[in-house]
Amino acid sequence: MFMFALLLFVTIVWLKPGSKKHIPFPPGPPADPLIGHLRIIPSNNQETFFYELGKKYGDIIYLNILGRSIVVLNSARAAVDLLEKRSSNYSDRVDFPIYKLAGYTKSLVFMKYGKDFQFHRRMFQQYFSKNGCIPYRPLQACEAHVLVQNLVSQPEHKENHFLHFATALIMRITYGHRITTNDDPYLRIAESINFAASNCGPPGGTPVDVFPILRYFPSWFPGAYYAGFARSQKALVARQHEFPYTEVEKHIEKGAALPSFVAENIEMMRREGVEGPQRIQHIQGAAATIYTAGAETTSSTLSFFCLALVLHPNSQLKAQAEIDEIVGSERLPEMSDRPSLPYLECLLQETLRLMDASSTSIPHRSLADDIYNGMFIPKGSIVIANTRAITLDERVYSNPHVFNPTRFLAKPQGLGEPHPVGPFGFGRRICPGRHFADDSLWIAMATILATLSISRATDSEGGEIIPDVRVETGITSHPKPFPCDIKFRTSRWASLITQRVNSY
Ligand code: HEM
Ligand SMILES: *[C@@H]1O[C@H](CO)[C@@H](O)[C@H](O)[C@H]1NC(C)=O
């Protein structure tokens, strides 16, 4: 077995494309022979590791594992120059054998650059364009009211309530399904999908991703674990694809389907006269992807927001004072209030900047040899836009580690610093759900601040508990559970919210 592996290493290194004559790779740390940086790249917290490397080697770093090139972009300039300005050569993805094994074969997130990619981007762009999202706003507001009600009744389960908020919205707009009870079958599928996704390892970062041959090995073999796990999730993933789709078909037949992503795509397919298993698989894959890509990202951003409020009570009070002045106490916030609430905007942006839910984003892959600022980037490189480093860039943000929402306000009130770029990715791969996600985050944050007071929990001696920022990394990062107290700010809000929620 060892000889076999060695042979494979040697073959790969031998086939490795050489640097073009005299043009150096971007700088990077010293590598081991044959295996390259395999031993020094951690499997967890890669973003921090890359950020630290950046301080030593600069904005663009070159690494390789077993001869496969990895290029890390640690500044907004580099990410925009390559992933946006040269997007036609930087929008491919690497293979994600783990997720393919689990059954995500028609998911935009993992698609190679090509015809299917274009078809799926179009499906998403039609449904989630900036204006296309406006009709969902009343639903988002309703779910935000349900969210604050749930947060007050079970503050110890806040993470679940954030996930429920994101899930309920996604099931509604994707399948036209309303979740009203806790034993809803859509919820149960969602839960097990989260388990599956968060146990498949970092996307593109498991040994099988780097070394696909491992997928043919039994799962006890070192590094092959994730492949075995993925295979065991296949039936479940198939159910996530097929069950809700069949439900929508039934509703359409009865003439009772609510408008939804799936209903609209079924109708379009029938109008075009192209109904068939191929097209159906594409619609099922796109629909399942909305959940897989959109639920945990949204909910973990809200968990980070909640943590920020606990850590920075003055920011909370300031945002509440602004909302009280503009919205008043007679009604709840609406999306139309957004332009009048500049401090809340800052709070949202600072949450995205400092507590980014997807720090290494999803790696892109380059399609052609390229030269950038005198450095050679070989075709087939894994290109990682490291949001952690981009949002902590000292040339852009003063005291980048400090939570300071007013940094975004114009001078002299603020520091005139730009909103973070990168939390939603770059170029032709930029998150197609970003407008919808942004609306969901805003209305949830506005409703929480208007109606709730989120404060530090107290210990047995009556002292305030100031939680540490401890982050769980995975396909999305989220804060490890932390204690806090959640109450309605006034009894008026308590009764108004209860009344609203009971009417839905
Ligand atoms: C706060 C919430 C969200 C965050 C932080 C987020 C972030 C991201 C990031 C960083 C990427 C990778 C972009 C790149 O490769 O350059 C991405 C891709 C993607 N996101 Fe989101 N996302 C969020 C919500 C959503 C929602 C609600 C949806 C669905 C409506 C969605 C659908 C997708 C899809 C389909 C992709 C893959 C795009 C592609 O590969 O072409 N995301 N997202
Ligand atoms: C992509 O690569 C090809 C081949 O090297 C090159 O001709 C083309 O100009 C590149 N496109 C961009 C946008 O950089």
Describe the structure.
The chain is of the alpha+beta class. The protein contains 18 helices and 10 strands. It has a 4-stranded mixed beta sheet. A two-stranded antiparallel sheet has the order 4-5. Strands 7-10 form a two-stranded antiparallel ribbon. 2-acetamido-2-deoxy-beta-D-glucopyranose binds next to loops. Residues 1-15 form the signal peptide. Belongs to the cytochrome P450 family. Pathway: Secondary metabolite biosynthesis. Keywords: Heme, Iron, Metal-binding, Monooxygenase, Oxidoreductase, Signal.
H-E order = HHEEHHHHHHHHHHHHHEEEEHHEEEEH
Unique bound compounds: protoporphyrin IX containing FE, 2-acetamido-2-deoxy-beta-D-glucopyranose
Strand order of the largest sheet: 1-2-6-3
Question: What does the main sheet amount to?
Answer: 4 strands, mixed
* Fraction in helix: 40-55%
Shape: globular
Structural class: alpha+beta
Q: Segments where pLDDT lies below 50 for 5+ residues? A: 1-18
Overall pLDDT metric: 89
Radius of gyration: 24 Å
* Count of helical regions: 18
How many E-type strands? 10
N→C terminal distance = 62 Å
Q: In what range is the share of β-strand residues?
A: 5-15%
